[in-house]
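Fold it.
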Amino acid sequence: MYNIATLKTALLALIGFNDSPDSNIPGIDSELTASSSGQYWEDFHPLLHTDNLYYSAPNFEGMGYSAYSVATYDTGDKVLYNSIAWRSKSDSNVDTPAVDSEWESCFSYWLREKTNASIAKLFNRLATDKKLSGSTKAIFSNTLLFEGDGKLSDTITKSSRVVGFAINPQRINNIQVVLNQLGLQFTVAQSSLPIYLWHSSRKGYVATQNVTTTGTQKFNWQALTSFVLDYVSYSSDIDSGGTWFIGYFEDDVTGSAVNKTYDFYAGPCRGCLNTADNVTRYNLWSKYVSIMPFYSTSLDGTNLPAIEDIEYDETTNFGLNLAITVKPDVTELITNNLHLITYPLGMQFANDMLSLMAHNPSTRVNAPQKNAAQNVVLYELSGDANTKGVIKETERAVNALAEDLSNISVALPQNKPTGIRIGSI
């Protein structure tokens, strides 16, 4: 699988727009005219010339926006200035509308949104139609770290610490770890106990969720939302590599945590009575992720303590268990191989924009003088018996991309170890 938000950020400037020589057409932000590939959208089809795109866009100048006046504007506010419709890119904006200021022409913003839509469509198409030869399938799903709960008499004395699990996804090209469920075992029920997710590349927590358990001296499973451990995330400012931490503050706990005897460093005892299932579980998840209980007494609000102040205890689970899913994540592989994406993305954008031109008549005055006739656009899309249209060429490009991407990650399911059966022998 892949992170669409990260791909939008990485691919936005892969292919650029050319500013129109027509002074009546608004200028485009430099972020969109930049081209890291050296190619421009009109290289993929002549109808993608900026003039044609402008006359296919909504008539923003005719939408009744208020005239610009010296004031403070927030993100998304729209005004008319020098006969051009502008959109504020930030809050507390006091700039005068201009290209590459805190304003962007509505036409430029429309191009940005259409580019992002084509990026999302390309990769959603790969996920749903092509399956990337299985790379969107989980390697394993909802696998418990261990089975069995702790002895109720084996409680952990609270010491005003932050405690939990340190998690390191293996640096295989490339995986994503999803924490689906959190198991909790405490002497009494917990009411809105905050659970935090941190990453070593940032001080503040990445995610938090309050969990409530039921009953006393009872084991509970709680579903987690948004506890996703990416190897790297540009949109969330998560650096590549590093360590994830999930845990809680002991001072937030009512009662005490119950410890489960388990060795996270060596794994469960091999050959001991009733340990076969835990051995097979450990052999499965430890190929892709290393997990070690941690604690720290050096607290800084809800921030992650300094790494040098974190200590590890491989045999204390702090009353926690996890159900995890591991999936291939080819996001970083894609961003490191942008040359594979340029042509398929260019064709996807051509397919999307020509479809818009054919089926969404422009509202601009004299637009037919600029735009190709509908029958011409439809022919360019579909072609004929002797000519491949844009639709067929896009399909061919997406097929080639799916094959390329399916071969660049050693973590894809067809390359994973043979599945391990959990159960009695």
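Residues 93 and 409 are 44 Å apart (CA to CA).
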